[in-house]
What we know:
Oligomer: single chain
CATH architecture of the largest domain: Alpha-Beta Complex
CATH class of the largest domain: Alpha Beta
Amino acid sequence: xxxxxxAAGLGKxxxxxxxxxxxxxxxxxxxxxxxxxxxxxxxxxxxVVLGHKSEMVKEILPSDVEIFYQNKQLxxxxxxxxxxxxxxDEDVLILYGDTPLxxxxxxxxxxxxxxxxxxxxxxxxxxxxxxxxxxxxxxxEKGEFINIxxxxxxxxxxxxxxxxxxxxxxFKGSKLLEGLLKIKPNNNQGEYYLTDVPKYLDNVExxxxxxxxxxxxxxxxxxxxxxxxxxxxKTLKNLMLNGVTIIDPDTTYISPEVKIGQDTIIHPMTxxxxxxxxxxxxxxxxxxxxxxxxIGDNVKILRSECEEATIENNVSVGPYSRLRTGTVLKNNVxxxxxxxxxxxxxxxxxxxxxxxxxxxxxIGEDTNIGAGTxxxxxxxxxxxxxYIGNRVFVGSNSALVAPLKIDDDSLIGAGSTITQNIPxxxxxLGRAKQITKEEWVFKKREKGE
Length: 449
């Protein structure tokens, strides 16, 4: 089976300079939600039809999808025609780039019915009490499919039909090609409707969608917010049913791909996105954002930002810490308030508790990084590494000018600027000599200065 995703629309109602499918929910573009769902079906190929500002959309797509272009937006049928070379004898599932809520489970059921009935096409439909705005599924007295009529083209009687077209459909590839040759723009919109193809086929089946919200398309910012709310609620409910405590679901945002272990507590105002994995017995938040991180067991992260970091077991982070890309915190590490790390490995039992920047560094075990310490990793042109060994004590307000190697068991005096390597077990001082002038203040006062 192949999957073809239609994403060429203008999206005028978004009132945006960006194509509609580039807008995000839960931190990920609409079209990439659809692509990721499609990949779970293990298709032989995935194709995407682009149109409006296609170069912008192309930049955010995975490299393993095939791209086709609809130069003029003349309807969904015309969009599929634009990818004609993509269609073979394999089944083709048609999806839409602005429908991020569609699930793998629903699509599998649709595909299963298609295969089990040997249908030429199988349409995903829904039963709505108020079908206004949707194309109607026209059937005969035996319940056999006849046609799909778009809302703009319905008669008064057809408007009363409650079974509607969701837009999702799987075709036999050869039958789709045959049908595309027959459709004409004979409608109020003057467009080539993909929904006209099934009426030219012999065996068309329907599968009724259980949760209509899965088929919702995003056309404006209000619907964008509604889709995010629906996805958020489903995700949080699933996590809570599987043993995760979420203190305040109204202020917690977790994307569906996130994995969280049992007995972890998520505090209010917490945002967890991307391919994040969190272990058991953790406490995350409040006021914390985590993106694409791997987090072990019994980790505490308070009021902090973590992106593309690896955090092992029994680590504490925050408050007000920032872990940037490439940070690795080994077991029992403590990262305290106003500490920033980037491309830095910190080994077990090491502490950096206050007001510190550690960039492009590797730090050993049982080391203490004093408050105000900075690794000076950038010389204005290139980045350089700092190596700090085991059981090192770095005094407060120290500047470590890379490239630099500080060996095991050494001690750096507070207020030092270190520019040379330090051997094992050494004391290093790099500060100006203190000068004290006794009674200097009193003498100045006597002179009235």
